TrEMBL record:
Its EC number is 2.7.1.108. It is a multi-pass membrane protein. Keywords: Endoplasmic reticulum, Kinase, Membrane, Transferase, Transmembrane, Transmembrane helix. Belongs to the polyprenol kinase family. This is dolichol kinase. One of its GO terms (molecular function) is dolichol kinase activity. The keyword Transmembrane helix applies.
Amino acid sequence: MDSQQMMETSIVTGGMGTVLFYLYTKSDTETEVAVLGYLACSFLMILLHQAAPLFHVNPVKKTEGIYRSINSQGLWSSFLIPTICVLGNFITKTDDKIDSSLLFVLLTLTLTLVHYNPSNASQIAGALLLLWLKEIFKQQGSSSIQLCVFNSIMFYSTLSKLPQKFPMSFSYGESIIVLQSTLLIVTQFLFRTSILQENEEEINTVSDHAMIKIAMLAILGVFLASVLLHLIREYTSKLKFYIVYSLVIGVFLIFGLPRQNPIVILVEYFSGNLIRFYLVTWYGSLTAITVMYMLLHSKQTSVSTATRKFFHVIIVAVYIPGLLLDPTFLTTASLLAFCVMCVIETLRHMDVQPFGRLIEEKYKLFLDKQDEGPLALTPIYLIFGLSLPLWMSFIFRIPVSDISVYAGVISVGIGDAVASVIGSKIGRVKWPGSSKTVEGSLASLVSQIVTLYCLQYTGKVESSWTFITLIAVTITTVLEAVTTQIDNLVLPLFLYTILLLNML
């Protein structure tokens, strides 16, 4: 048996099993019990498929050349986003109803199992699982059902097309997380916050919320433009690239915010707020340092682990001041930064001149060995992983002063960076079946505990020192050592899931 897979499966089982048990003790309505029943049964089936290769059973079709060449395809990752959504619903519940977005992410578990193992037994089990959600379906209106069905069709159809379009770029679990989170965030920002359906008074109000809307609409424009450009890739030129991006993003902004002038919003957004001016200046300085750092090392043929982890230091210097001083501004800034990273990757991947080749030359030195396919995803995942806890907290209206919002900073920005640097320098004892070292993991755990203490010392972070928090960072540290999934993506979500228990 593969000891690394066994440890990964054991850690995930312990962490997620604890979450499910804790949720069970807090459930007090029929709807919550139904959701937990569905979640628990789905998790058991996911674990069976996750553990099947350990017993030399391969329940799925061959995936060589489609997914990343790793021992475990990380099916357990599909459980993270649905669990976070259930936790968010438990924390902020106002009634006994479940919205369509939560229903959709729950359905992705059944869709994933049927897609992963398209046998008659899996299809029958999937149909039986849906019986748990029968009463929840009855609560939904026709528009909610239509939206849920549309998202489910998009999820299932794209689940096969995404890795085929970009082979070796994703593991199975990573592709699921990307699709779940993308469709969830789009649905929540556009429909739950009613960006396109607000009344006239709200549209004329310049606020923090308006800037988040603009950033989200820009992201939607980038996604649509990128998809469109990939569909017409053989006809794509430099001129067409800029025309398509400008038109699509412009249309989204014009029709998404028809009565608001983005320039006026921007001016009023910063007027009288010195903290935001300081943060913009600070972020600009960090950007300049990053560019200079890349140029300084661009002539080298290879770089060390410590050199690559410099970007983790930069990202921590971005997120901690933002979370402590102005989380709403950081939400907007991170959405826009994610948008920019997607544009940069599209320029690189499609070799749009004059920037495509230049970006490729600067990127190739700093890419991780996990970037096996045509897409360079680890830099995007770094921003995405650190931002997801903040974005999910915004969606579920979880206080940004809670330690859970710092899950990405603690696990990836601090823990993963320290583990890699210390492990590569002085690490000697390796974890079973893994290239990671025990020394690196111990240094990671200590650094995360020190970070928790420092955050508590600021007086602006709640729940820093609890038993749940210490257990969460400990098992996340061990997971970092044994998982074959991309750390930047799965570790923040795993830690965030467990830290949310502090709020129940």
